Amino acid sequence: MKIAVIGTGYVGLVTGTCLAETGNDVICVDINAVKVEKMINGEVPIYEPGLDVLFHRNIAQGRLSFTTDLADAVSESQIIFMALPTPPGGDGAADLSYILGAAKDIAKLVTSYKVIVNKSTVPVGTADKVQAVFTANTKVAIDVVSNPEFLREGVAVDDFMKPDRVVIGTRSEKAQKLMAELYAPYVRQGNPIFFMDERSSELTKYAANSFLATKITFMNEIANLCEIVGADVDAVRKGIGSDDRIGKRFLFPGIGYGGSCFPKDVQALAIAADSHDYDFQILRAVMEVNERQKLVLVEKILKYYKNNIKGKHFALWGLAFKPETDDIREAPALYIVDELIKQGATISAFDPEAMNNVKAIIGDKISFATNQYDALENADALLIATEWSVFRNPDFERMDQVLNNKVIFDGRNLFDLEKMIDLGYYYNSIGRKLIS
Ligand code: NAD
To answer: Which residues take part in binding substrate (predicted)?
Structure first.
């Protein structure tokens, strides 16, 4: 099929590339000319494991191309995906200006039937708004489909190629048939495609992200309580996770959820509920607890240094909001950095992929190390904010040589408590016994 993908971010570029991989002809459009130029020159603009192989293969075979020219893409395609930002607007609700703006631009260009697919995360009723934009701007018949994306950054290619499920919201039989055909290669193992109406589809995405954020937040509260009552969150986690109704995944406590999705989606759902006079109480609590949790490591640090960290120098491992991505949007690490600097500390950070993105935002407010051990040079303590695999089994002898003190504040529970006792560290993690 001939496909256009508007927006080449984490979702759009993965979608476009993976759709090309099954033989479709895909044109990706972005307004960011620098980004498009890079992609035309064969550069993958984001870090996403496995994406580069598919990206280069499909470009080489002529199935994947990039442009800033929307008209080219629209005229060539039967199906047009919108994978555009839906950031929080001034009131915290999802800002639909990218979606509705692009819909208007596309509407002015269509000359034949198209399926307009919204992959962005949007509030209930957005498909109707997009349809209204088309009705106002063209006489050509189109169908608007809601097809929320569930990929996770870091494993996005796998998630797209073998999704747990595909959700397609449309009441048009014609659009449903085309979408079923397009997705058939991705669900060969029998994973379901759920067809539903547009509103249910739109709400499914918000419900999924809000539920996951709630699950993480619940475990963070259990972890905080574990510390107070002298229980071990790892034991509790295993104890509850073996119950199928709860499940083992998403039970690891930490320093709060971040990223480009959970914070904005939880907030957008709560505000959307508000606008219908429904007070979504759980989500309010989730947001409040998460704000606090992002600074739990700072609280521990301040307590240890008796509220005075002026002149202290910290090593920080991890900046990305989670491992295997360079995405730093709403990363808890950045909140920690901000707070520590405010209180007069200095920081030397290392992250395998996210340092350039952080540099672009905060410049030389902190220093960036070339590897995880250089970051420890003359540091009073090590702080861990992202659970990159490379941090899990470090060379402790080498660490001991460069760290000023054997002190670790671990926001991701990377190390075994017994081991830290043997190594003689002060080790403060989340929801577990303090080793001092
Ligand atoms: P992103 O910010 O990484 O990418 C958006 C891209 O759209 C950018 O390259 C930007 O230049 C481009 N763009 C903006 N306006 C444009 C226009 N008018 N025409 C063409 N291109 C334009 O965003 P993302 O992370 O890919 O997220 C996109 C949507 O998907 C959001 O609604 C998000 O909530 C949702 N989503 C994201 C993820 C994720 O893990 N990132 C997962 C599922 C769903």
So the answer is: 150-153, 205, 250-254, 258, 322
